[in-house]
């Protein structure tokens, strides 16, 4: 839920008026896997089952949603706790990650100490057909109407999945752009729906973490509202991900045509 509060609006012509706004919730969400505390993220406490699933997948703690079991969510006076059991590859490597984790962040690094880990090559994106710009414009035209939290607060990021004609099938929102992406990925995985063909549409700045989350979970095309960073472009190009950016309802910029490069 969002809190509704009053504020004072000031206008250039000297007018003043009282206005009422809803504040988006931002609370600590502690993620525990196999009984070990793994991360504390600042997030909006909605769709937390999707969040923990997407987080585990993008962190490499699970290969599929089926390896994430026994989800339990509890609210405390200090925030939320989300617990899950992992099987598969994450069960063994998680303990080591917990021991080497020195800081928690929503920026995507999550305390990785070894800079070489950041530069590891991404998997190659699967061969895919190019998404037409018309599909992107169609999705952009519908996205705002599918963002209730964003409309209510003006402070929520959204991540959506659309098919190759621009029909949006899934949207998730959060105060954090990375969290919204994880929630979308988790929701699609729990539904058993692949991220390709089709594309991810994100209202976030296109940083390298958004690119990596997309590539690691099987997406082939990413569309973002803002321009990418230099590292995002480098990672996109090396992986063969199709990237469109600066997306508006009447224009969009093709940064990398991965459909020409995918093996």
Short description:
With 263 residues, the protein is an alpha/beta fold. Helix content is 30%, strand content 29%. The chain has a six-stranded mixed β-sheet. Strands 4-3-6-5 form a four-stranded mixed β-sheet. A two-stranded antiparallel ribbon has the order 1-2.
Q: What does this molecule look like?
A:
This protein is α/β, with parallel strands linked by helices. The chain is 30% helix and 29% strand. The protein has helices at residues 48-58, 89-100, 115-118, 133-143, 148-153, 177-191, 208-216, 230-239; strands spanning 3-10, 16-23, 27-33, 36-43, 68-76, 79-86, 157-162, 168-174, 199-202, 221-224, 242-245, 253-256. A six-stranded mixed sheet has the order 8-7-9-10-11-12. Strands 4-3-6-5 form a four-stranded mixed sheet. Helix 6 runs parallel beside helix 7. Residues 102-109 have low confidence and may be disordered.
Total of helices: 8
What is the first-to-last residue Cα distance?
46 Å
Question: Percent helix among the residues?
Answer: 25-40%
Number of self-contained structural domains: 2
Order of helices and strands: EEEEHEEHHHHEEHEHEHEE
Which homologous superfamily in CATH is the superfamily of the largest domain? Cytidine Deaminase, domain 2
Shape: globular
Mean pLDDT: 90
The count of DSSP E runs of length 2 or more, i.e. the number of strands, is 12
Question: What value does the Rg take, in angstroms?
Answer: 19 Å
Question: In the CATH hierarchy, what is the architecture of the largest domain at level 2?
Answer: 3-Layer(aba) Sandwich
Strand content: 25-35%
Helix/strand/pairing category? alpha/beta
CATH level 3 topology of the largest domain: Cytidine Deaminase, domain 2
Low-confidence stretches: 102-109
Largest sheet: 6 strands, mixed
**Top-tier CATH class of the largest domain:** Alpha Beta
With strands numbered from the N-terminus, the spatial order across the biggest sheet is: 8-7-9-10-11-12
